[in-house]
Design goal:
It contains 13 helices and two strands; from the N terminus they run E-E-H-H-H-H-H-H-H-H-H-H-H-H-H. Helix 4 runs antiparallel to helix 9, helix 5 runs antiparallel to helix 7 and helix 7 runs antiparallel to helix 11.
Length: about 240
């Protein structure tokens, strides 16, 4: 392995020969982590999804923008709970510094940007009017696969930035270092991370077919798997 040094921290860049089957090990260990507190994690997942949904229900595009900004913050809360479960053996939301949470708030600004990209792809698939109606919470008569593809289209970006919140809140790294370290590590371990990306895509893309239950049920499991990947790749 090659040690990569930044101005704030060092991390191990994973050799590109790491096999895709490594993801199966992460999946097994992630499931074991989830099984330690399944109901608490499912409850937290429901609470975060409900909070984001209620914010999105606010009138006009303001509610949608706030929801897309808050969603990464809520995801970080889930990461923190999983990290405490893995390290301390119990679900807890304590952790982080004022500075790290401020960086999380800045990082969360990527949420509206990524949503905008999704909407542009959705507009190409089903038309701008249908996308606007969906964003407003209206029922639109469009094929579910188009909505599914729109929702899953952000997976490549989300995969590259997957470890940013964990590096910010758990290792207290700078915003720039967290971005560069996350991208470099995902690219370095691209074989197993592509498997993780497929899991993330399926969880999101199945939402239109399952009334969002795929995110509620499988989301915490996938998050646990991603945390195990973080532990293995950032030692």
């Amino acid at each position: 392995m090659t040690t990569v040094t930044t101005t704030r921290a060092t991390y191990q860049q994973v050799n590109q020969s790491l096999p895709a089957k490594e993801a199966l090990t992460w999946l097994k260990e992630g499931w074991q982590l989830f099984a330690k507190a399944p109901f608490k994690l499912l409850g937290l997942s429901f609470a975060t999804l409900l909070t984001a949904g209620l914010m999105q229900a606010l009138a006009g595009p303001v509610g949608l923008g706030i929801s897309k900004w808050v969603s990464p913050l809520l995801a970080t809360v889930m990461w923190l709970a999983i990290a405490n479960l893995a390290v301390k053996g119990k679900v807890s939301l304590t952790g982080g510094t004022v500075r790290s949470w401020a960086n999380i708030a800045l990082w969360s600004l990527t949420g509206p940007l990524i949503a905008w990209i999704q909407f542009q792809i959705g507009a190409m698939l089903m038309g701008a009017e249908s996308v606007a109606a969906l964003a407003s919470g209206n029922v639109v008569d469009v094929p579910a696969w188009k909505v599914s593809l729109m929702m899953g289209s952000a997976t490549p970006i989300n995969l590259l930035l997957l470890f940013v919140p964990m590096l910010l809140i758990l290792k207290h790294r700078s915003l720039s270092a967290s971005f560069s370290n996350s991208i470099a590590t995902v690219a370095g371990a691209y074989k197993p991370m592509l498997v993780i990306g497929a899991m993330i895509f399926l969880t999101v893309a199945l939402a239109p077919y399952t009334f969002a239950l795929s995110g509620l049920v499988f989301g915490p499991v996938v998050s646990c798997v991603c945390f195990i990947a973080y532990q293995r790749l950032f030692r």
